[in-house]
Amino acid sequence: MTGAPLTDDLTGPVLVVGAGLLGTSVGLALRARGVEVFLTDVNEENVRTASGLGAGSAAKHPAELQLVVVAVPPDHLGPAIAAALTDTRAVVTDVGSVKGAPLAEVRSAVPDAALARYVGSHPMAGSERSGPLAASSVLFDGRPWAVAPHAGSSEEAVAVVTALVEACGATPFRFSPEEHDEAVARTSHLPHVVAALVAGALAGAPPEHLVLSGQGVRDVTRIAAGDPRLWEQILTANATALTGLLREVRSDLDGLLEALEDGSRHDLGDILGRGVAGTAAIPGKHGGPAVAETGVFVAVPDHPGELARLFSDVGDIGVNVEDVRIDHDPGRPVGLVELTVATDRAEHLQHALAGRGWSVHR
Amino acid sequence: MTGAPLTDDLTGPVLVVGAGLLGTSVGLALRARGVEVFLTDVNEENVRTASGLGAGSAAKHPAELQLVVVAVPPDHLGPAIAAALTDTRAVVTDVGSVKGAPLAEVRSAVPDAALARYVGSHPMAGSERSGPLAASSVLFDGRPWAVAPHAGSSEEAVAVVTALVEACGATPFRFSPEEHDEAVARTSHLPHVVAALVAGALAGAPPEHLVLSGQGVRDVTRIAAGDPRLWEQILTANATALTGLLREVRSDLDGLLEALEDGSRHDLGDILGRGVAGTAAIPGKHGGPAVAETGVFVAVPDHPGELARLFSDVGDIGVNVEDVRIDHDPGRPVGLVELTVATDRAEHLQHALAGRGWSVHR
């Protein structure tokens, strides 16, 4: 045992198929580590742009490649992965949001020997923007990245894909393709469609009712602003896992309607209590167990110098901030800043900030 | 016309019934403006605590009061409002989350002449904590506060309650009780129950699946952590408006399930597109029209001094920050800070921060 990092397994050359946001970001991260990268895209302009940014070479790639990273839209994953397995002898991965449906397509298109070189993966990173100009070498920095070998994937291929994840600065988590799709149905696709349903209900509201919108409804609906064309593809590809969950949610919704109609506090309390348990089940932000956190609210004049002064004071006080949220007052230039801190530090922070003249409450 | 502020209408004395979070905060805000405040609570300890904090007097209130503010839990609103109207000649308001159900109880308990002195209201403010110790004179600062007179409310009573809202530093918005209840069913109660359903689905997940939880699911489920005992009362009191909306959502959910089962991209796109429209319908954070915003992501070592340095740089660069979110990397001490800024300022901020050595992307 030499203690050498696993990323020694990634020696290149690497071919990135699809020079959009994710593909170009992979290229930038690998180039920053000195790995040789080649780029292709059905859109030549994307290749020129990504190459110009330093994400890799636009030249024809050599016959011998160590790894092909397929970073094309969900609808095109299956054929693109199959083509990479057929055209090269390299390990092949993809960065799509769903793993089972493309695998089924690939399995029907290539022999088992070639299929052994395929290990699907999925970085938990993205952006509201798309295309190579939105790319960044640090897009994946510290993010979870699912590595999802199928039953026939070779361990060598798994090691290469794991090395890719680490070279991009992300944290690998291993799943089977089915487990991955169930996990993201629950943690990503269900929240997305439910946010869209709640936001859809706002679209039908009299506009004057929406002045009563607070941080809660903003939080619940934020992700519903995502690109419908992309989400159509993702949700369709994961339809099986998602419809199973949606049927459970519909059944819970029926239970909720019944409890409201019957005035059954007990059943209503059960549903709400399960929600509380679910929020506590999400891992802590540092990957450890969830820690009790409390919001401390500070009124801050809405210009950037005041935020700097606030965080300078928080730094002096020495309390670590787990999250920040700015809730602007309607109609005036003051923001209420919510500092989320460990519950056992909240009182100290509150009093220390008040002592420095901040208008603060919990 | 003297240009005198409307708050001249609030001269006191004011009686606050219920010295919990909201009642004590009202007392503190009014005392800060020199208004005489008296406090009562079924729990004597709450009165002593609130009075000790400076929220008003624990002594017996005088017979002549200008205003009674009822700040008791939702289940007890109707009787407490009726008692205030019967026992005093003052204007009476309450700060409950639902307006129609308590009004119906009050209407059946007092004559129309007394009912004219009642104007329900609802401040859009709260805290995860409760009780007088969580109170603050600035809890309502800049928040929307619904003023909801019924058809028989006198304009004089409306003026006094509006003056209360302004004395507390909040912004009054006038609704009928029915409109108010429909508005909060959509902007508050529906998001809450749907967040509880999504969070409930997480409670049933294998824990290892939840490492893939990102900011999206955290945002969608955050409010589901609220106190089930309080929410049972709120949802029950607004059952009529809420069940109507929930039936619409169930029908949309059925349409979504059908679209997923049929593979109908068109129908799926319609539902997602309505969601996008809904997110755009929420008023801008400053109360004006929604402005296009973009997230700029900055990797920041996870200790408070670094946040201060970041906001100091943002201040120097001169770009206004509309919102902040910290997404901690699982398993290491770095946070990815998302600065939400006007879209037309994002590129400038990104380049200027990169020029100061920050690791930044969009």
UniProtKB/TrEMBL annotation, chains A, B:
GO terms for molecular function: NAD+ binding; prephenate dehydrogenase (NAD+) activity; prephenate dehydrogenase (NADP+) activity. Pathway: Amino-acid biosynthesis; L-tyrosine biosynthesis; (4-hydroxyphenyl)pyruvate from prephenate (NAD(+) route): step 1/1. Its EC number is 1.3.1.12. Keywords: Amino-acid biosynthesis, Aromatic amino acid biosynthesis, NAD, Oxidoreductase, Tyrosine biosynthesis. It catalyses: prephenate + NAD(+) = 3-(4-hydroxyphenyl)pyruvate + CO2 + NADH. One of its GO terms (biological process) is tyrosine biosynthetic process. Pfam families: PDH_C, PDH_N. Residues 295-362 form the ACT domain. InterPro entries: 6-PGluconate_DH-like_C_sf, ACT-like_dom_sf, ACT_dom, NAD(P)-bd_dom_sf, PDH_C, PDH_N, Preph/Arog_dehydrog, Prephen_DH. Residues 12-290 form the Prephenate/arogenate dehydrogenase domain. Gene3D superfamilies: 6-phosphogluconate dehydrogenase C-terminal like domain, NAD(P)-binding Rossmann-like Domain. It is an enzyme of class 1 (oxidoreductase). Signal peptide: none annotated. Belongs to the prephenate/arogenate dehydrogenase family. This is Prephenate dehydrogenase. It comes from uncultured Nocardioidaceae bacterium.
